[in-house]
Design goal:
2 copies of one chain form a homodimer. Chain A has 123 residues and is mainly alpha-helical. In chain A, 59% of the residues lie in helices and 6% in strands. The structure holds a DNA duplex (30 and 30 nucleotides).
DNA sequence: GCAACTGTATCTGTTGTATAATACAGTTGA
DNA sequence: TCAACTGTATTATACAACAGATACAGTTGC
């Protein structure tokens, strides 16, 4: 069963997108693997204190990407080939890198300054 | 006069917030300094192809943060003490660092792996 | 069979974003 | 002075995103 223990909602970003992101990061980390059971819409909605439709919206996105499968009446499970999981990881890493690099560059930082910044805030 | 030459709108983020971000990054980079003239609402709206109200919404936010000042009938200018500019820079850097670090950590990367990633994508 | 779960579909309402059309008032400079 | 710019304010409209309420339908296990 996929864990939402360390899920910390952040305002300014739609909840359903944060749910998608949380699961994708789990896939990238390898803590979410093929065949893992996904919490039901009602269970997760109660856990997070949101509407079941909000969960459904997130799950539909994951299904459209082929990362999970649902069937009326039955539980839902992750559907992850090795290649698909690796692709998710690459996508997230690339997006993160691109976003932060663009931003830091626009602020005039050099590569070394950027690396020092990340190192300083890593803790 | 503040330049919008390298302003590249990105979908998914409200235009007025992108304008605020663009100017703040200029402040952080030192390319926008105290006393710099800000394009008028009408001029910038024509340049970007958006409604004047959208520009106004961005400028109101900047005014509320004390980064610029407007007076009816006159042009608008940046109002930046050295400390204020430094604070804007620190805030943007900290937010960028925090966002990317949180994400990479959730994907299971170590500090060195994160640094290598940034270096690899910097180009 | 049936209770208790599962996913699915539809409708409603609020909010944010952006546009449009004006109107009014203050300043600046020739 | 006065034309041409500035900022400011109001009202209306449209649309999409987001989330909530509710009802319906399929499965699973006893």
């Amino acid at each position: 069963m996929i864990s939402f223990e360390h899920f910390t909602p952040e305002e300014g970003i739609p909840i359903y997108l944060q749910i998608v992101r949380h699961i994708k990061r789990g896939v990238a980390a390898g803590t979410v693997v093929h065949g893992d059971e996904v919490p039901s819409r009602r269970v997760l909605s109660a856990l997070l204190g949101v509407n079941p439709n909000t969960i459904q919206k997130a799950y539909v996105l994951l299904e459209e990407e082929g990362l999970m499968a649902s069937h009326a009446g039955a539980k839902s499970y992750m559907t992850l080939t090795d290649g698909r999981a690796a692709a998710v990881r690459e996508e997230l890493l690339r997006n993160d890198a691109r976003a932060v690099i663009d931003s830091l560059r626009q602020m005039g930082l050099s590569k070394n300054e950027a690396l020092s910044l990340i190192e300083a805030y890593w803790e």
